[in-house]
Amino acid sequence: MCGICGKLNFDREAPVSSELLRRMTRIMEHRGPDDAGHYIAGPVALGHRRLSIIDLTTGTQPMSNEDETIWIVFNGEIYNFVALRQELIKRGHRFKSSSDTEVIVHLYEEFGDDCIGQLQGMFAFALWDARRQRLLLARDRVGIKPLYYCVTDTSLVFASEIKSILEDHTIERRLDLGAIDRFFGYYYVPGESTPLRGVRKLKPGHYLTVEDGRVAEMAYWDLKFGSEHAHLGLDEAADALRSLLSDTVKSHMISDVPVGILLSGGVDSTGMLHFAAEHASGPLHSFTLGFSGSDVPDERPYARLAAERFGSVHHETTLSAEVFGDFLPSYVWHMEELICEPPAIALHCVARLARETGVKVLLSGEGGDEAFAGYPEYRNLRALETLKTIAGPLKGLLSVGFGALEYAGWRRGAHYRALVGRRFPDYYLSRTATPETPFNRARQALYGPELLEQAARSPFDAPTRALLESVADQDLLNRMLYVDTKSWLPDDLLVKADKMTMAASVELRVPLLDHRVLEFAASLRTRHKAFGWSMKRILKRALGPTIPAEILRRKKAGFPVPYDRWMRHELRDYIHDSLFAADSFASRYLRTAEVRRLLEDQRRGAGTSKEVFSLLVLELWYQRFLMPPTGVDRQGCPPPSPSSLDCNGRAGASA
Length: 655
What we know:
Blueprint: E1 2-9, H1 18-26, E2 35-41, E3 44-50, E4 63-64, E5 70-78, H2 81-90, H3 100-111, E6 121-129, E7 134-139, E8 148-151, E9 155-159, H4 162-165, H5 177-186, E10 199-201, E11 206-211, E12 214-219, H6 234-252, E13 259-262, H7 267-279, E14 285-291, H8 300-310, E15 313-319, H9 321-335, H10 343-357, E16 361-363, H11 368-372, H12 376-391, H13 395-407, H14 413-419, H15 424-427, H16 438-441, H17 443-446, H18 449-457, H19 462-470, H20 476-502, E17 507-509, H21 515-522, H22 526-529, E18 530-531, E19 534-535, H23 537-543, H24 549-553, H25 563-568, H26 572-579, H27 585-589, H28 592-603, H29 609-625
Parallel strand pairs: 13-14, 13-16, 14-15, 16-17
Antiparallel strand pairs: 1-3, 1-9, 2-3, 4-5, 5-6, 6-7, 7-11, 8-9, 8-10, 11-12, 18-19
């Protein structure tokens, strides 16, 4: 796991500044504290920060072929690189290292751009073909590793992190109000946009080329729902999945440094621990986290149970309100994109614990819910659409029924009542957002004139509509899984996973998002994934014989961060002062009265904690990335608070 960056000037006579490349790599030091490397040849420059995982002695980057006509900087891991290397040696290629990076160089020599489709792994890389004066950028199929770029009239600049691109001071920092509008709708920014106009994300499963000043982006992979394994019964499919997961986890454990497990005590992470324990050559370390306060669900007993069952050396830590609040400026700095993810701070806390323990690589159970339909909303919306079809012209009775449930105390009654009269494509944005969220209901009241104009200019939910249209022939469950795999997963969950672990200089691997696992899941009957009230059916069947029954049967919880309580008490003044500062985003683009109403509703426990946290994240991001910088260190990161605490609440090193 590393950080990459670079620049290509379209004018071949215009050299790239070596000082610029040093700044671009230095600001990502957290992504690769072990080494830094640079390559400059006239109009092209490639930079690299290294977190040494494989081939610790000869894997330095940038890396080239034998005659130095092809250069690469690479971020990620290629899990099938040994097999690819052996095949390339048979074809006459000579290797000077044992790294997976060099495999890509020779694979490109052999197959050109088609080499990308042969890679199994998580990756983002930039490859310079000096003979053709051609730059190739590529990103893995699901978007596990980030890659941003900015095209101007004179150049293309790229990096693993936006802050690295912004070290090029010829790039103007301009707010993209369309991205802000989408953030309010989704609680993240879906698609290619970022909050900065002109800075874009290379889409998952895509590659980009620059040749003769022409920039072209192409897809090399998409998730296809087929019938390859539709003939398999549930038990037969579960056996096949068990074998596939064992092989996948084994490949994801390849490393020359210790590998650990991020353990939540849920089905997915416990399953990963089971397979990792099968293939481990030495002791495995597992890590989990809890929260201060007695009113919060505690995942730790289940994590301990899993660790005891599979014999891992287990570590725990606790996150407090004080640490959560102190880390918020750093959360925004490292995340860079606008994302409402309080659990991300918990993830960073666990990653830092792993690093302090000497573990540089963590396996995670991320992605199981998107691959195998683990979220209750999938089940609930399928049931709702079935009821609407059965009711036909009598759908109004459904509204009455949901209204009665709401009156009886079911909080979600109002949500489903509002959806009865609507078409599915009109309201399914992602698992996390619908038009019935407080932001979307309050759009007209919340927005100032500039945001209102933007909202009227283009629909904020266009990314979801396009995704749904592309799989319009699929079962309703597969349509939801497709949207979340192409949007919620890469643009929210995987950004969180990458940025928060890399902030601690730790590599996170996600075996359940290996493309072979995703393709297998997509080829199954939908009833193997969700049937009746049963969710993630086949995964539980595959893991059932091996993981503790208490974990298999327990209700999904995730990291239940008690941020709502913290914002109502410990962080209340901080939030108020941030949002109502004289130069705040809220004071310029939002209506003050509506912001005050959202804060007051949140303080009363009226269910607007997500909205208030989003406003705070947006405000901190705006101040950090768009306002003139003050009081920052040499890397631009906010200086640590004198009272910084470690995750256990003890005096310690700054996050």
